[in-house]
Amino acid sequence: MIQQSLSIRHQLSAVIYITDIVTGRAVDHQRLSLILEPAGNAPIYKNEGCYIYSNLPVGVYRLTIRSPDYGIVTKQWEWNPEQKNPPVFRLLLQPSPAYSFGTQATRIDCRCVNASGQPMAGIPLTLYSRSAVNSRARLKKNASLESRVIEVTTAGVRPLAGEQFVFSAVDKDVTSREITSDELIMIECLPQLNDQVWQLTAPLSQSYLSGVLLLPVVQAITDHHGEAVLVIRAIPSTQGQFELVAGYANQKLYRSEMLTVQESEVVTFQLTIPPSFEEDGMAKH
Question: Mean pLDDT, the chain, as a whole number?
Fold first, then answer.
């Protein structure tokens, strides 16, 4: 009995919430394939997009989610016996080109090819909002370094846990020297919070003044056809300017294009990836 008790202490569960970024609702679990490495065991499906992996031993895990309707999503984590609570992950699935859009959505259908016109799979795409009028939220008051909770004034649709935003000091009343304009955050959105109060997954690196904007960021990876879909969940001003980046903007090799997108518009766009990125940039990832 003593050995069994010690064994249980070194087991842990992992909780995964999977949400469709277009609808904001749980994804049909029958259309998903969840592969956990190295364990290989199947999760227990509860409800509302909640999956639970139980009795996981100490180690590093990599979860891969596949579906014909969505792009591939991976999540890696590590846990040890010192952790008291199970890890909880909230993952957003981005539509694939095969996704059936039941409602109008503002989106960019992008295809990446090389100099010979051949499709390039595995190209990371990031769409950054560059219009202040298209901010999804604005800070209402200062946020301390220690606090993970901030008050905001929202615009557009309710935020989803796992959405990403860039903090931007573009308001005329904000002193830019006190703000970094490229801090990427994620919204946790716990059930007890509402549209006016969001919770971050990590503390801010510095204090922010009232008026700072939260600009949305959308990410996707091209499939074997070199195609990917990026959905913009809300454009409060009905038109917005966005920067589409292929590759990793924090590295030397990448391709960037500026786009103006109308609300509910579908933009078809093709990017030719430079040979230098194909040879050097992808070798690093």
Answer: 80
- Taking residue 27's Cβ as centre, other Cβ atoms within 10 Å add up to 20
Burial class (CB in 10 A: 0-12, 13-18, 19+), 164: middle
Look-up of token digits 């994620």: 186
Rounded Cα gap, residues 278 and 285, in angstroms: 11
Residue 250 neighbours by CB under 8 Å, 6+ apart: none
Residue 244 phi, psi (nearest 5): -100, 120
Q: Nearest 5 degrees, angle CA 136-CA 169-CA 203?
A: 75
Cα-trace Rg, the chain? 20
Query: What pLDDT does 282 receive?
Result: 45
pTM of the model: 0.82
Over 80: is that where the pLDDT of 103 sits?
Answer: no
The count of other CB atoms within 10 Å of the CB of residue 64 is 14
Phi, psi at 128, each rounded to 5°: -105, 135
Residues 6+ apart with CB under 8 A from 61: 14, 36, 37, 38, 39, 76, 77, 78, 79
Q: How confident is the model at residue 161 (pLDDT cuts 50, 70, 90)?
A: confident
Contact 51, 33 (CB under 8 A): no
Q: What is the pLDDT of residues 230-263, one digit of tens each?
A: 999 888 888 889 999 998 655 555 788 999 999 9
